[in-house]
């Protein structure tokens, strides 16, 4: 059943005071790469959930996140001086430390300055660096336990994390990450050609091609959902691709069983722009160039926006009809990631879900929307809708083939995670 217009609004509006904005702010969010911030260097603008912030790194290496507008009279703190562990507004010299506290207001008489500083209302945000990314908590009250996913704990050479800025609503990103049935179509062009794709990834795609009408099964978990796409292989065995969806926006996508593994996070910048965080990681060894190339071949050489060269709608994002004639399915020949970004972009900035006509292969999309809408109904009860503080490091998507007459796919999931 298509969504009602008001449900689409609920799912896609994330500004301050909106139900979804309030819900998402209860979770840790990747905000900016650590490498983008220099000690005592220029503050960097960060836009999240329709709000403007600046991030900066102090003299001692700590990172702070402040509202972009100075609490005094609204001057942009992106213009501020970064000096001695704080940002000093260039208008009247108010200075804020990395915790967001006002520590100096030099225009105020010295005798009452300290008291004055303490009386000024400021927004303070919890910040944490992990996996070479600055994460923030924008919600009310104390931050929940930090999500120590495996990729947040590995050495640098075992993780590749990049951000793409894309012109569509965050929910379109989430729905692409959880949609298993598109893989054998949209990404088919990367099968069997000599393109820059890792061999084990191609093997996985080849198995998906053997059955393009997978059966979907799901498992509710306290943190979200496990989804299995089950395909019958030519040799009679079952090939299961098992996604882990850690609500509200962290998705683990099955790749080669021996690694590397993939995770995606779709974060609202505003309601028509999102940050797609793409994470590739190997639990035990450095990532190969080949693995990185498979995901990022031909993308912009900018780790803060690898989608900068995605192309434009008026040119159909550079779709190559000649390549299609020669066997490439989508004609979007840059890489797998751009195939996803282009189809999502082509739906429009905030797709109208009241017009959709869904089929049985969309069961996971329907389920996740329902999880969100139900969680929104419970907002304000004081309880986080999905569990936090479990063993994040054991979350791990799987792709396995097995004798389906003897085993169930659930035998391969991480029961010990919660
Ligand atoms: S506006 Fe920032 S100190 Fe006055
Ligand atoms: Fe995809």
From TrEMBL:
InterPro entries: ARHD_Rieske_2Fe_2S, Cholesterol_7-desaturase, LigXa_C, Rieske_2Fe-2S, Rieske_2Fe-2S_sf
Keyword Metal-binding included in the entry's annotation: yes
Record domain Rieske: where: 28-136
Keywords, comma-separated and alphabetical: 2Fe-2S, Iron, Iron-sulfur, Metal-binding, Oxidoreductase
Gene3D superfamilies assigned to the protein according to its UniProt record, in alphabetical order: Naphthalene 1,2-dioxygenase Alpha Subunit, Chain A, domain 1 (3.90.380.10), Rieske [2Fe-2S] iron-sulphur domain (2.102.10.10)
PROSITE patterns: RIESKE (PS51296), RING_HYDROXYL_ALPHA (PS00570)
KW Nucleotide-binding (keyword) present: no
GO molecular function terms listed in the Swiss-Prot or TrEMBL record: 2 iron, 2 sulfur cluster binding; iron ion binding; oxidoreductase activity
Pfam families in UniProt: LigXa_C, Rieske
UniProt xrefs under CDD domains: Rieske_RO_Alpha_PhDO_like
Entry superkingdom: Bacteria
Protein's recorded name: Rieske-like 2Fe-2S protein
């Amino acid at each position: 059943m298509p969504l009602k217009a008001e449900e689409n609004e609920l799912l896609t509006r994330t500004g301050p005071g909106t139900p979804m904005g309030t819900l998402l702010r209860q979770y840790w969010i990747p905000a900016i790469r650590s490498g983008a911030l220099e000690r005592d260097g220029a503050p960097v603008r960060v836009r999240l959930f329709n709000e403007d912030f600046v991030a900066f790194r102090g003299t001692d290496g700590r990172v702070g996140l402040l509202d972009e507008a100075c609490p005094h009279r609204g001057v942009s703190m992106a213009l501020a001086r970064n000096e001695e562990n704080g940002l000093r507004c260039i208008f009247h010299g108010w200075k804020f430390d990395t915790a967001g506290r006002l520590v100096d207001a030099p225009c105020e008489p010295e005798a009452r300055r300290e008291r004055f500083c303490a009386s000024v209302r400021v927004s303070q945000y919890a910040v944490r660096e992990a996996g070479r990314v600055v994460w923030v908590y924008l919600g009310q009250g104390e931050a929940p336990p930090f999500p120590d996913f495996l990729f947040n704990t590995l050495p640098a050479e075992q993780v590749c994390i990049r951000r793409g800025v894309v012109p569509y609503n965050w929910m379109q990103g989430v729905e692409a990450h959880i949609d298993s049935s598109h893989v054998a179509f949209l990404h088919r062009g990367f099968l069997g050609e000599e393109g820059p794709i890792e061999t084990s990834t191609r093997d996985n795609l080849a198995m998906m091609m053997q059955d393009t009408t997978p059966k979907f099964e799901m498992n509710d978990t306290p943190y979200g959902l496990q989804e299995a796409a089950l395909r019958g292989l030519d040799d009679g065995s079952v090939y299961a691709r098992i996604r882990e969806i850690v609500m509200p926006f962290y998705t683990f996508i099955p790749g080669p069983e021996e690694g590397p593994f993939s995770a995606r996070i779709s974060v609202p910048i505003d309601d028509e722009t999102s940050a797609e965080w793409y994470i590739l990681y190997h639990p035990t060894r450095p990532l190969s160039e080949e693995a990185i190339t498979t995901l990022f071949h031909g993308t912009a050489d900018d780790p803060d926006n690898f989608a900068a060269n995605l192309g434009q709608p008026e040119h159909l994002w550079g779709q190559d009809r000649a390549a299609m004639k020669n066997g490439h399915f989508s004609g979007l020949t840059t890489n797998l990631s751009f195939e996803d970004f282009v189809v999502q972009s082509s739906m429009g900035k905030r797709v109208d879900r009241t017009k959709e006509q869904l089929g049985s292969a969309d069961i996971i999309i329907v389920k996740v929307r329902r999880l969100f809408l139900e969680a929104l109904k419970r907002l304000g009860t004081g309880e986080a809708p999905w569990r936090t503080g479990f063993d994040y490091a054991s979350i791990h998507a799987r792709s396995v083939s097995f004798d389906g007459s003897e085993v169930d796919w659930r035998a391969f999931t991480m029961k010990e995670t919660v």
